[in-house]
Amino acid sequence: MEAFAILLAAGKGTRMKSELPKVLHPVGGVPMIGRLVGKLETMPITRILAVIGHRGELVKKCLGTRVTYVQQEHQLGTAHAVHQTERLLSTRSGSTLVLTGDTPLIRQSTIERLLAAQRANISAGVVLTAIVQDPTGYGRIIRDSASGEVIDIIEEKDATPEQKQINEINTGIFCFDNESLFQALPGITNDNAQQEYYLTDIVKVMRWTGTSGGQKRFEALILEDPTEVMGINTPEQLEEANRAFYEHMGIFT
To answer: Does residue 246 lie in a domain region?
Structure first.
């Protein structure tokens, strides 16, 4: 069975206070996205696609021919970014990983576990989640109280006070059944506080359309160490990621 990987690398990363695309800032001496591609290259991935936008020519210069590039002309959200790969992937069967290009600390073993979890149950999708003490700023995982199945992911700005108390958060990393992914993407709207097309909305769209639910569940894989997917949005967080990398080089390389 084929496997594909989509890397989201189109954002400006304005809080980094740099003209350099966020994914090109180095962690452990290697650009974030380059470190991530290096891990995927050792896996049985048929094709790695990078969705680029802001100063995408610099990403191309960094990665060269290691990946296939897809341009996102307007940054309208993560679902919109993934949708840009439709021409290349929508007719293929297999599994598709979606990873953010600014998660260089994620372990290869975690990516392999995510892929295996989707394939084991032929799930419509699996989201990588983490349990954190302070979930502020993250999307919350909504589960069915009876089955435990993931039925929605609510972004912080759209969450109710009760939902904000949930401490299982979305890491932004997924593995989908490829056919289910492209069947559901057109159903995502931008009816939310940010007026963006959130990839997280695919969970409820799959349930509404019958793509998931019943035997073909939408599942979650809980990450044991949230450091793997720590947010890197500011120079301070970049410094923290570098510190974590050097302190645990045997883990995050």
So the answer is: no
